[in-house]
Design brief:
Order of helices and strands: EHEEHEHEHEHEHEEHEHEH
Number of strands: 11
Radius of gyration: 20 Å
Structural class: alpha/beta
Strand order of the largest sheet: 3-8-7-4-5-6
Shape: elongated
Number of helices: 9
Strand content: 15-25%
Distance between the termini: 6 Å
CATH class of the largest domain: Alpha Beta
Helix content: 25-40%
Largest sheet: 6 strands, mixed
Number of domains: 2
């Protein structure tokens, strides 16, 4: 069966050309972007009810752009003036660069991991005397809290945004030749919107171990797993599958 259309569970990049656009042009397939999850900010009044005191902390941990967006939103809504001594710990360079959307930082205030969990934990361990604020979603990995607890590092976890299922009613029967999923929550949202969903002859592409596990638990088949040694990117995995048809 020739692949004619692909549904990608991510936001539409708009006019910015992405690898998916190149894929669509090369193989004459239609690619539709549709996030399966939405991020909803927690109002500042809720943070006040939780008695969050941002200025009690000396450093902030950022694991994503969403965390940065909602931290600075809360700071503005609560009319908090951040001290020049505040330190920012980012899991990778991409996250650290995004902070410049809100403020210009000197190197002495920025601590950046090398993209691996181990490298980021080494950073935290070197500065274990600090009191950290950890802005996060209602759905987050346990790795950072577990590490902080294990090493007795002082921190406050602050849920500043919620990850919720998107309304997918506009997708009708979700019938596409390939469905591309990037997170376990995508699978949760799929069944929340379509409880009787059946894979049938559709191909499913799942990114990462946790997404693959969610696909298996839903009794679906991850037809196009990535990353793999042969296919380090989702695009290369999709290309291989399309070429096999």
């Amino acid at each position: 069966m020739k692949v004619k259309n692909i549904l990608v569970s991510q936001p539409d990049p708009g006019e910015k050309k992405s690898a998916y656009h190149t894929l669509a042009e090369k193989y004459k397939v239609k690619v539709k972007f549709r996030p399966f999850i939405e991020v909803v900010g927690v109002p500042a009044r809720e943070m006040r009810k939780q008695k969050l005191r941002i200025l009690d902390h000396e450093a902030v941990i950022f694991t994503s752009r969403n965390a940065i967006d909602h931290f600075f939103r809360i700071v503005e809504e609560m009319k908090v003036e951040l001290p020049t001594t505040m330190k920012y710990f980012c899991v990778n360079e991409g996250v650290s660069l995004y902070i410049q959307k809100y403020t210009v930082l000197r190197k002495r205030k920025m601590f950046v991991g090398k993209g691996t969990e181990a490298s980021f934990f080494e950073l935290l361990k070197k500065h274990k005397a600090l009191n950290y604020l950890f802005p996060c979603s209602n759905i987050r990995k346990d790795a950072i809290p577990n590490f902080m607890d294990e090493h007795k590092i002082q921190y406050t976890e602050a849920v500043m945004y919620n990850t919720v299922n998107a309304d997918l009613s506009d997708l009708a029967s979700v019938y596409y030749d390939i469905l591309v999923f990037y997170s376990p929550q995508d699978i949760v949202s799929l069944f929340a919107n379509y409880p009787n969903f059946s894979q049938d002859d559709r191909a499913i592409a799942g990114w990462g171990k946790t997404t693959n596990l969610a696909i298996q638990e839903a009794k679906l088949t991850n037809t196009i797993p990535a990353p793999t040694p042969d296919h380090p990117s989702m695009i290369s995995a999709l290309e291989d599958y399309i070429n096999s048809k």
